[in-house]
From TrEMBL:
Catalyzes the conversion of uracil and 5-phospho-alpha-D-ribose 1-diphosphate (PRPP) to UMP and diphosphate. It comes from the Bacteria. It comes from Oceanobacillus bengalensis. This is Uracil phosphoribosyltransferase. 5-phospho-alpha-D-ribose 1-diphosphate binds at R79, R104, D131, P132, M133, L134, A135, T136, G137, G138, S139, D200. Belongs to the UPRTase family. CDD domains: PRTases_typeI. GO terms for cellular component: cytoplasm. Its EC number is 2.4.2.9. It catalyses: UMP + diphosphate = 5-phospho-alpha-D-ribose 1-diphosphate + uracil.
């Protein structure tokens, strides 16, 4: 069964409070999401394997370490996932970025896929699917399926805020996928919004409402 990690780092929790705040405007919202994404990337990469190397310092030769193992791929779910990509790339600049375009039909709440463009070597990469919101879980579930259908083998899911319903769906449908969150909220409302949540992540990031 996939693991669920909720990051309780004080900086993440502090910034998330301002992300949630209805008074936070688009510019500050975008900056805070970027910062939290970077802090989450720091935590998510804690278990990446290292290998020993020698490096010449100005003084002598040091036994040191560099990252080894699989290369990383980031897959934001359009469009709100885009708001977290730059933050993660600040820490993992060599990561390739694929895109999965989905929107949630407001009536059925079912995701509709409209775009998929991925690095050609996704089967060799450790993929991090990125979306600020895991609500019903339909969008993340479809995105993960889209990746697996195209050969992805190692997938993690990174979201700011999740509802229990979304977490349960991913755990059931993709028990191989670990989930990383800044918060696990109480529930969904009748429109499929996370409560207390932060509202519509895409609209707040891009100022479309
Ligand atoms: C939001 C969000 C997720 C999805 C979560 O996207 O960014 O992708 O809803 O909901 P779910 O877990 O119930 O599927 P939205 O459909 O609003 O599209 P947008 O990013 O283009 O605004
Ligand atoms: N999508 C969002 O942007 N917010 C929610 O609360 C649920 C889905």
């Amino acid at each position: 069964m996939g693991n669920v990690f909720v990051f309780d780092h004080p900086l993440i929790q502090h910034k998330l409070t301002y992300i949630r705040d209805v008074k936070t405007g688009t510019k500050e919202f975008r900056e805070l999401v970027d910062e939290v994404a970077m802090l989450m990337a720091f935590e998510i990469t804690r278990d990446l394997p290292l290998q020993d190397v020698e490096v010449n310092t100005p003084v002598t030769t040091a036994n040191a370490k560099v990252l080894s193992g699989k290369k990383i791929g980031l897959v934001p779910i359009l469009r709100a996932g885009l708001g977290m990509v730059d933050g993660v790339r600040k820490l993992i600049p060599a990561a390739k970025v694929g895109h999965v375009g989905l929107y949630r039909d407001p009536k059925t709440l079912k995701p509709v896929e409209y775009y998929v463009k991925l690095p050609s070597d996704i089967h060799e990469r450790e993929l991090i699917v990125i979306d600020p919101m895991l609500a019903t879980g339909g969008s993340a579930n479809d995105a993960i399926e889209a990746l697996k259908k195209r050969g992805a083998k190692h997938i993690r899911l990174m979201c700011l805020v999740a509802a229990p319903e979304g977490v349960e769906l991913i755990k059931k449908e993709h028990p191989d996928v670990d989930i990383y969150l800044a918060a696990l909220d109480e529930r969904l409302d009748e429109h499929g919004y996370i409560v207390p949540g932060l509202g519509d992540a895409g609209d707040r990031l891009f100022g479309t409402k």
